[in-house]
Specification:
Elements: E1 3-10, H1 16-29, E2 37-41, H2 44-58, E3 67-69, H3 70-83, E4 95-96, H4 99-114, H5 134-149, H6 154-163, H7 167-186, E5 190-191, H8 193-206, H9 208-217, E6 220-223, H10 231-240, E7 250-255, E8 282-290, H11 300-308, E9 352-356, H12 359-375, E10 384-387, H13 394-403, E11 408-409, H14 424-433, H15 440-449, H16 457-473, H17 480-491, H18 513-530, H19 537-548, H20 550-558, H21 563-588, H22 594-602, E12 621-624, H23 626-629, E13 634-639, H24 659-668, H25 670-674, H26 678-697, E14 700-709, H27 718-723, H28 725-729, H29 742-753, H30 759-773, H31 794-801, E15 838-840, H32 845-850, H33 852-859, H34 868-882, H35 888-900, H36 908-933, E16 938-950, E17 957-968, E18 974-980, H37 988-991, H38 995-1005, H39 1008-1029, H40 1041-1050, E19 1059-1061, E20 1071-1078, E21 1087-1091, H41 1099-1113
Parallel strand pairs: 1-7, 1-8, 2-3, 2-6, 4-5, 6-7, 9-14, 10-12, 10-13, 11-12, 13-14, 15-17, 16-19, 18-20
Antiparallel strand pairs: 16-17, 17-18, 20-21
Helix pairs in contact: 1-2, 3-8, 4-5, 5-8, 6-7, 8-10, 14-15, 14-18, 15-17, 16-17, 17-18, 18-19, 19-21, 20-21, 29-30, 34-35, 34-36, 35-36, 38-41
Length: about 1150
């Protein structure tokens, strides 16, 4: 008896999913067993929603899950087949190979091939540079997935590759053969996710008796959103409904070919064409069009139609793109009533297009829209969603919303577990514990600056300087990272000092020592666990976790609210997942140790299924991509970041292995596929983008807002003109108001309270601030209750009963004592004692004169952490210091070794960074040669330091500094060379009075050149003697108590040079000049910007040093911003966020 089949077609919100649930309910209410119902959905989250709604409606539990994702159902088929003994060769219960496990296996194969082990595929030569990158590993994984989706075996791929001149396909087919062999040997019972559905379909096709049993067990099969189906899913349906099936179950399908979000995973809505031919067990497939919209408001329907009409129609699956509005409330309508506030004024629900002037304003606009709906509209946060095109934008939006106190959730982990900030320090600790030398120094650096170590950038810099000074005195050449690693190993007792040096003074409070102690204690606990018998990664991780003390800290933080609590929840969830991963690894890889687990986890590029939040807020704004928003709806939806080039993104899908061309060859045939042009692929990509956009905007049931940035460099997307043509005819920027938060309210009131133009308004604002800052618990007749005036709020109740309420805590920032510029100075004494010289550093002299406050903030630690540009500059300086006269190829080789230790992601940006670094080091090599041959100078020292006392009329200056290179010219004069890696250089006119170089020349005039050269000669002799005599057991005399007392009395620290004095007020002729060697500018060669030698007539240089000393020693520090002194020589404001003259630092006026 032929079965029946129904295909429900309809636009978003026409009730397709609801119709499936209703049909299942009718089936059960007719007396059928609920266990004989199966609901299928494209993904796990969609299946969960169907399962929950079905279970709630029938009011009973079901023995087996009534709803499954397609892949989950396929896996269940194979699992039951194994239990019935129908899967030969599979000894254990089948399991699904996770994405990270697949990724690790592919990575291991590529690495063994790179080492010449086995028989590597014959990849085309133009892919040679890509083979070692993680991006290529992703390319292979996606190509193998597509082959599995298309059910292509390696021989078929080879044939297509040879016939269509794609040698990379032939190599990929050979790679797949080895991959399948290794997978079957190591995990014979594991199935690739991409091949899983085809495996299940193939099993059904060869086991008709199992199909009969399946239709006896299931009498109603309902599949939702079939437009997201891949060829494998359609094949599975066909295998489930083969020809000759005696009594097939009823089949109901739903689809909307205009909203496809899984195209990047192989979804093909064109498979809906001729679908009934693929289901021969059915007598036919009846199409039903749903033409009434139960979600989209009337004003949104025409906008959706304008987008949908630009999408090609799928033959046999025509939908009504202009659904009608319901004439009366129906079951599908979940919310007919618009609350008071903004949502009530939306009229017919037409989409709103809002343009702003910058990305930061767009973020502020998101906060404004959400808070206005929450405060004025009475909506819960869970009733709102923000949808963006790219998942990479979600973290940035979440951070901004967290800062405004808005709870937000990202449903799927966007980064691998190893990249979670809470997990990374423990993986770095495992790496160090395994005593691996590769990358160990960089990981020690990361560990010290992580949440576990807690060392600040300034503390780390001073710690490295101390260790580096000791190393240079001992004649060593280890890098700063290597020295940090050695210090950590000395602390936990695994490495003794080889040169007689004492380690850092851990008993004191020196810079960075607290972080060293914390990390050392954690490593010691981990090393003790490593020494235990039957050690496992899980045990070592537990030892590290318990020693860290972070469990209590994060648990207490998670009990609060706001961004700190949300981050604590995220950190704890990540640690739970880390321990689960260690447990799974131990179960699956019996006998594997800590190193193997570290390799397994550290090489993953994919997140485990999801990093599902175990804790966290229940009411939160949903942040999603179109794929994760599919099948859901919210009253308020904000589609953000709709920019030209971002949405639609017309970059043709695919990459090095030409996966799109393979798909064309499968579906069109090789001859027709060869005729597909680039323009045709762009059109296909455009259609995919339109379908995703249509899916995104159709999630809104009451209000849709679409935002974009319009400035000199960024344009709104053409999609906005399609969506709202009337609004885009004369687009205007939307003013962004302050967010409706207490912090924003306080800022606005403070601005009004200090406005001299409106005294009356200022008085009212001051009164409001007083009420916020000085709440005494007394009833206030003017203040409304929580429910509004006359609605029985708590304040009204207190007033009626006469009992005072409990006072509320003061609002931060409301009291004037917290305002900048109004609080009394903590001290009126100068920052430095009057009896001691004022330390002045040449590199900071310009900043001191330009804006003393900038200088004070920077030296006090108030500056941003080190970014990649600064790290790159430090790397170049270290290589130039360790190999000052090496050949170019030696410098590049050493740079490559240290650059790879940074572990930057293998992206296009990283490649650009490497090319920039290589260019700079080659420029330095050329300069070193030209300095000797063209300038006739010789190298006298590197990284030399000096201290020069410069007497002044008001305060004496102690000029201290360190020079990159000290050279001697043909006249025997000393020249200071400062290497610059920045992109900007001072002008020729500015060089004559460049403050930093002038400071160096003042030091040279006092004899600093001779002193540094002599010290360099002594260090070289000691290093040679030490190499001949071997390591000394004597302690550094600078570490003795007597030496320490002597240093304290003289004001000198360990390793400081002798203090010289500038005799007289005029310069001598000992200086040969100073120069900036520009390595980072865009010129083809280095730039040599020289400041000519200063003579006795150049008194301005000495006066500049003296002026700097006076400004530093003052009790007040001025903030100065003018066109003349802002940005000179590439310098800007040190910290604009707290500078009272910068727009972002005006606390009183900034919302």
């Amino acid at each position: 008896m032929a079965g029946t089949g129904t295909l429900l077609l309809g636009a978003p919100g026409t009730g397709r999913s609801t119709a499936l649930i209703r049909r299942a309910l009718d089936f059960v209410r007719a007396g059928n067993d609920a266990a004989s119902v199966l609901l299928l959905a494209p993904g796990r989250l969609a299946a969960d929603r169907l399962r929950q709604e079905f279970s709630e409606r029938i009011g009973a539990t079901v023995s087996s899950p009534p709803a499954r994702a397609w892949h989950s159902y396929a896996f269940d088929l194979l699992r039951r087949a194994h239990a019935a003994g129908q899967l030969p060769g599979v000894a254990f219960e089948p399991r699904l190979l996770s994405g990270p496990e697949q990724d690790v296996l592919i990575g291991q194969m590529i690495e063994t091939h790179r080492r010449g082990i086995g028989h590597p595929p014959a990849w085309p030569t133009d892919l040679g540079e890509a083979l070692r990158t993680r991006g290529f590993r992703r390319e292979i994984r996606e190509f193998l997935d597509r082959c599995a989706e298309f059910d292509l075996n390696p021989d078929q791929v080879r044939e297509l590759g040879r016939g269509m001149d794609h040698p990379e396909w032939v190599a990929a087919a050979d790679f797949r053969v080895e991959y399948e062999q290794l997978r079957r040997l190591s995990m014979p019972h594991a199935y690739d996710p991409s091949a899983l559905v085809h495996e299940a379909a193939a099993f059904l096709e060869t086991h008709p008796e199992f199909v009969e049993q399946e239709h006896t067990r299931l009498r109603l099969i309902l599949a939702d959103d079939l437009q997201e189906a891949s060829p494998a899913v359609v094949r599975l349906l066909g295998a489930l409904y083969p020809a000759g099936l005696a009594d097939p179950a009823e089949l109901v399908l739903t689809a909307c070919p205009d909203t496809v979000v899984q195209g990047f995973r192989g979804a093909l809505p064109e498979l809906l064409t001729g679908l009934e031919r693929r289901l021969p067990a059915l007598s036919g497939l009846r199409s039903v069009s749903l033409a009434t919209s139960h979600r989209m408001p009337a004003g949104l329907v025409p906008a959706f139609e304008r987008i949908a009409h630009r999408i090609p129609v799928v033959a046999g699956a025509l939908t009504q793109r202009t659904p009608a509005q319901p004439t009366q409330p129906t079951e599908e309508q979940t919310d007919d009533v618009a609350p008071a506030g903004p949502a009530a004024d939306q009229g017919d629900g037409a989409p709103e297009v809002l343009l702003v002037g910058s990305e930061q304003e767009e973020l502020r606009l998101l906060s404004q829209l959400i808070l206005e709906e929450y405060v004025l509209g009475g909506r819960g946060l869970e009733e709102m969603a923000v949808i963006v095109r790219n998942g990479s934008s979600l973290a940035r939006i979440q951070r901004h919303l967290d800062a405004d106190g808005i709870a937000a959730t990202v449903p799927v982990a966007e980064t691998p577990l190893r990249e979670e900030p809470a997990v990374r320090p423990f993986l770095d600790a495992l790496w160090i514990l395994t005593d691996r030398e590769e990358e160990a120094g960089a990981r020690a650096l990361d560990l010290l600056t992580s949440r576990l170590g807690g060392t600040s950038p300034s503390g780390l810099r001073r710690l490295r300087q101390t260790l580096r000074a000791r190393e240079l005195r001992a004649g060593g050449r280890r890098s700063g990272d290597e020295l940090l690693l050695a210090a950590l190993r000395q602390i936990d007792g695994t490495e003794a000092s080889a040169d007689g040096e004492q380690g850092p003074d851990l008993a004191g409070s020196g810079p960075g020592t607290a972080g060293l102690r914390r990390v050392g204690a954690v490593l010691a606990a981990g090393r003790a666990a490593m020494a235990e018998p039957d050690v496992s990664a899980e045990n070592v991780l537990w030892a590290l976790w318990e020693a860290s003390g972070l469990a209590k800290t994060w648990e207490e933080a998670s009990r609060g609210s706001g961004p700190v609590a949300q981050r604590a929840h995220r950190d704890l969830d990540a640690m739970v997942e880390l321990f689960k991963s260690a447990e799974r690894f131990a179960e699956q890889q019996t006998g594997a140790g800590v190193e193997q687990f570290l390799d397994y986890l550290d090489s993953q590029d994919l997140p485990m299924d999801t990093l599902a939040p175990v804790g966290g807020p229940s009411a939160a704004v949903s942040l999603l991509t179109p794929a994760s928003a599919a099948g859901r709806e919210w009253p308020v939806v904000i589609v953000s970041g709709v920019q030209d080039g971002v949405w639609p993104n017309l970059t043709v899908r695919g990459g090095l292995l030409a996966a799109p061309q393979l798909a064309d060859a499968v579906f069109l045939g090789p001859e027709q596929a060869a005729r597909v042009t680039h323009g045709m692929r762009v059109r296909e990509t455009r259609v995919d983008e339109l379908r995703m956009f249509a899916a995104a905007i159709s999630r809104a049931s009451q209000r849709l807002v679409v935002t974009a940035v319009a400035d000199a460099e960024t344009e709104p997307s053409e999609l906005l003109a399609m969506l709202a043509p009337d609004q885009m005819q004369q687009p205007a920027l939307t003013p962004v108001r302050r967010p409706m938060t207490l912090r924003g309210l306080v800022a606005e009131l403070r601005r009004a309270a200090q406005d001299p133009q409106d005294p009356e308004r200022a008085l009212r604002a001051a009164d409001c601030l007083a009420r916020l800052a000085l709440d005494d618990g007394a009833p206030d007749a003017d203040a409304p209750g929580e429910g509004g005036p006359g609605e029985g709020g708590p304040v009204d109740d207190a007033a009626e009963g006469g009992a005072p309420r409990a006072p509320l805590p003061p609002v931060p920032g409301a009291h004037p004592e917290d305002w900048w510029g109004l609080a009394p100075l903590s001290s009126t004494e100068p920052a430095l004692p009057a009896e001691k010289p004022v330390p002045v550093t040449p590199s900071r002299m310009e900043g001191i004169v330009r804006s003393p406050l900038d200088w004070f903030v920077a030296v006090s630690g108030g500056q941003a952490g080190t970014d990649l540009s600064r790290s790159l500059g430090t790397l170049i300086h270290e290589v130039a210091q360790d190999l000052p006269e090496a050949a170019g190829h030696e410098l590049v080789g050493e740079l490559r070794r240290r650059f790879e230790a940074l572990r930057l992601p293998e992206t296009w940006e990283t490649e650009q960074t490497w090319q920039r670094a290589e260019t700079m080091i080659r420029k330095f090599a050329q300069y070193a040669v030209d300095s000797r041959l063209k300038e006739g100078r010789r190298l006298a020292g590197i990284e030399g330091s000096f201290q020069v006392l410069v007497p002044g009329p008001a305060r004496d200056a102690l000029l201290t500094g360190r020079v990159d290179r000290l050279e001697v010219d043909q006249l025997g004069r000393y020249v200071v060379i400062d290497l610059k890696t920045g992109r900007h250089a001072p002008t020729k006119a500015q060089m004559a009075h460049h403050p930093q170089l002038a400071g160096y020349q003042v030091a040279l005039a006092a004899g600093a050149g001779q002193a540094m050269a002599a010290q360099a000669a002594r260090d070289g002799a000691e290093a040679r003697d030490g190499a001949d005599a071997g390591p000394s057991d004597a302690a550094d005399p600078g570490d003795s108590p007597d030496a320490a007392a002597s240093q304290q009395a003289s004001g000198r620290r360990d390793g400081d040079p002798e203090v010289l004095e500038l005799r007289g007020a005029r310069l001598t002729e000992l200086s040969g000049g100073a120069a900036l060697v520009q390595l980072g500018t865009g010129t083809a060669s280095y730039g040599n910007q020289q400041q000519e030698a200063l003579g006795p007539e150049d008194q301005w240089a000495v006066e500049l040093v003296q002026r700097c000393a006076e400004l530093i020693a003052h009790e007040r520090f001025q903030a100065r911003h003018t066109e003349q002194n802002t940005g000179a020589h590439g310098l800007g404001c040190a910290l604009p966020e707290i500078c009272p003259l910068c727009a972002s630092g005006r606390q009183v006026t900034q919302p």
